[in-house]
Amino acid sequence: MPIPLGLGLPQMKQYDIGRDVADVARAAEAVGYASLWVFERVLFPEPATQGLYGVPGRAWPEQYRSVADPLITLTLAAAATERARLGTSVLIAPLHVPFQLARSLASLDAASGGRVVAGLGTGWSLDEYAAASVAPFEKRGAVLDELLDVCAAVWGPDPVSYQGI
Questions:
Q1: Strand, helix or coil at 36?
Q2: Angle of helix 70-80 relative to helix 17-30, nearest 10 degrees?
Q3: I need a surface site. Which of 2, 85, 125, 162 has the fewest CB within 10 A?
Q4: In this structure, are residues 124 and 45 in contact, taking their beta carbons and an 8 Å threshold?
Q5: CA end-to-end span of the chain
Q6: Using CA atoms, how far apart are residues 156 and 152, in angstroms rounded to an integer?
């Protein structure tokens, strides 16, 4: 039995997102990749409040200077493929409005025929939290918990009902 392999999609500034995502996604599926993946970087801080992954002195890679939106990138890949799973590795969930993120993921999953794998995390960049103005960095765990509750409600049966914090 072959081991299912995944491939990261081209979503950084050196690529032509409108052309390269679809081309790479089609080629990857044609040669047998089982999944296509994206990551999320909201910004490239200059100067950075902290180092990469919160490690003092560790520089952010130049490739992070411009990263395409992960859900737009997966939408382009979904339109160009038929079988490959479409994954987020990972979305910084607390930087999104919970209902909007749940709805976007559900829409992409429906449009792709149920191929979405949603990897959600809390993130580590103080600068991204400051720029997004959605949730304070210190509350990221609780915000992720609430987002998971919202996703469960949105992805469940209609009508949807949810009482947030």
A1: strand
A2: 50
A3: 2
A4: no
A5: 47
A6: 6
